[in-house]
Structure formats: C-alpha cells, structure tokens
Design brief:
- The protein contains eight helices and 26 strands.
- It is of the alpha+beta class.
- It has a five-stranded antiparallel beta sheet, with no helix packed on it. Strands 3-4-9-6-7 form a five-stranded antiparallel beta sheet, with helices on one face. A five-stranded parallel beta sheet has the order 22-23-24-25-26.
- Strand 3 and strand 4 form a beta hairpin.
Length: about 475
Amino acid sequence: MQTIAHLALFCTFVQIKIMKRALIHTFLLLAVALFGVERLAAQARIARSEFVCYDKREDAKRDTRANIDKYIALKPSLQFEASEGTVRAVYEQTIEVPAGWNDYNAYLHVESVGADYTVFVNGKQITTPIDRFTPTDFYISPYLDQGANVVALVIVDEAYMRLLDEGLVEAERPPFANCYIFAQRRLAVYDFNVRMSPDSLDRFAQLRLDVTVDNSFSTCEVIEVGYDIYDPQGKLVEYSVNDLQLEGFTRDTLSFTPYIYHSNPNRWSAENPKLYTLTLYVKRSGILWEYIPLNVGFAEYGYDASGNITLFGEPLKLNKSNYNAATDSAATEREIRALKAKGINCLVPNYPQPKWFYAICDRVGMYVIDTAAISSPTSADNRDVDGTPANAPWLVEDYLRRVETMYRRAQNHVCIIAFSLGNSPSGNGYNMYRAYELLKSFGDSRAIIYEGAEGEWNTDISY
C-alpha cells in the first residue's frame, strides 16, 4: 500500500508541473525506478475488433497507412533499464497532439513489446500490467493534452503475471512492430461484427453486419453508416447506407441483414477459401469520413453431441498442429502453406496472434482454434482456493481480460472455428468458470473449448 501512496503523490506532482513538458520524462523515470507500478491503476484498456480507419478507399484496400491523416507509428526509445526489481525498463515517445484532435478520440495499439508492460501517458499510469502475448488497444484521449505528450511503455516483471503464462514463448519480432496511435472522430464506428451464414432455408447466404457507433459529443448527432460487398469474383453484390441518430455520450448498433444470392459456390472452407470483400464507411452531411476494409467468408460453425466441430452442420475432419506465427507475415505464410501441403488443415496457437496471421489463414484456407494467453501447468491439479491460478479469485479480472481481448479482436475472421480458454494443463476453478461464462454470453455459435476442464461443465466439447 505504500507504493500506492507514493505513486499517487507522484501523479499529483506531475499534474501540477504538467505545463513544463521537459519534467515529465524525469519524473516518470524517477517514479517507476523508486516505486514501481500499480495493479490498482485506471483501465484505459478496451476489447474490440482490431482495425484502423483509412482516409481513402484505395488506401484501405492496400493497407497504406502513410496517407492516414491522424495516424502515428509508435517507436519508443529506451530511457531506463534495470536488471532486477519490478520495473525493468522504460520506453517513451513524445507525440504532438494538434488542436484539431479536440473533435477526435485517440487510441493506442500495442504489440510486439517482448515483455509484460504497463502504459503511462503524461506521467499517469492508465492501465494495470498487460501480458506480452496479447495485442491490445487503449483509449487514451482523456489523458492527452494539446501539444506535446509523453507516451511511455514501462516494462515490468510481476510474479503473478508469470503464473498466468508460464512456459509460453513469443516469436522474436522487431520491437514495437505494428504499435501505433490513431484518432477517430468523436462520432464514429466503435466496433463491428460481421458474418455470412445460410438463410433459414439454406438457399443462399445472409450477411449479418452489426456496426456499433459511438457518439462522444454531448449533443444529439446523426451519422450515415454504409457498406458495399463484392463477391470473390469481384462483382458488387450488395450495398446500403443508413442513418443513425444518437443522443450525446451514447452508443448504438446499426444492423444490416441482406441476402447475398448465388453464394453457395463461394462457401468458405479450408479446401475452398473464397472471400468476399466488404468495405465499411461513414458519411456525415454527404461527406465520406473513413473506410474500414474487411474480408468476409461464408461459413457457419458449431459443434455436435459427439464432440465434433461442425461446418454447415457437418463434422469437420481436423488434422491439427500446434503453431505460432513466425517473425513476419511472409515467413508465416510460407510455413502455413508448407503445413497445408503436408495435410495439416487446423492450427492451434498458444496465444493470440498478430492480425496478419488470421488474414493469412482466411486467404490460404486454414482452420484456427484461437487460444487465450493462459498457461499455468504448475499446481494445475490443486483445486484448493489459490492452489492454482485458475482457482485464485484475486486473478479473475486478468483471466477475463485475456479471454475477452482474444475473442473480440479476431472474432470476424472466418478461419476461426473455436475459441480455447487457455493451454492445458492450466488447472480449473473459479476463474476458468467465469471465463467460459463470459465467452458464452457473446452468443457465438462457435465452440468454447478448454481441455483442462477434465469432464467439468466449462467446455462445449471434449477436446
């Protein structure tokens, strides 16, 4: 508790001196070096689909981020390093926030840190420690000021974090690869869920596109949300634009459910990985604001009483392999194609993968059982309270954040046929029960799997 008091005093001091930007760096280094970081921090962390918004349609198609007006690549530099203690290093970057960002919400995306970390903005810790394995988004607007701002990633070595991902090894990638900050207007798409599944008579596909829109203004606002979708042969098959009116400081969901005719030849499978191309866009007063590109597959997954994962109601014959993405997307695609050539049709990673991993599996045709970054083999058989991390209630929020972030960020990829609560053996108990209930509450037809359930109720199939 002494650390909490020290950190609170430090944050107050930084706020008093915030106009003197040069002091932020010095105070941050001093604070984390002397006092460490807190679990009881603000939670800027959010769980949603991983995406950025493009200013031009052609840039959206090519993932050209250089032309995005409010996009900043994050490449923080090392400021402090230690060989022992909770805090092991501090990386920071100063970013300029122009006055025009007043009407925008800013988000920070972090991955490829190579270690567990926490985030500071202008000397304020905005999140509890985050695991190194799960790419994560943060809402940082409340912590930014106009002008210079210091964003710091503080590398931590927390004993309780090591309990949750024991034995997991992350592929070596360039430090902070695909870390960035981007800003959306305060009236914009917050999240989306897209899928194509058979209509009620199994004649053709029905697109189900749910778009959650956020209004961060205090006033009632109207936004136009639209999309167009092209079949795998490049033909426009459907489009629509709808108005949505939102009261101030609210979110609402706009749903599109059109039929997509002549779609049965394009049913997605590992043998027939055909993808539809959908572009989601936003307009206001007739002016296009932002584009979000998506690839969509026509598939319907489930599971049966015999413990099989099903595709369009038929059991899938799976030849599985444990696999985590390589150093970059090119090497990963070569390895996935090589595995497919050997007859492997399903990959089971040990933790959430980079976004491009799922895009490769969508395109190449490879089923994926996505897995939360949870691995606790030590004391897995001890069902006493605190005997295993899975039955340590004080860790429940860490479990829930890991499984929800795993699910939300990759839920729209057609390659994912099931979600796993973690690696086995990792024990069972209260935290795994709550994690299972959370994922089931999302209403997804895909199986929730946990091999470590060992006959208990918190798995849909024996795996």
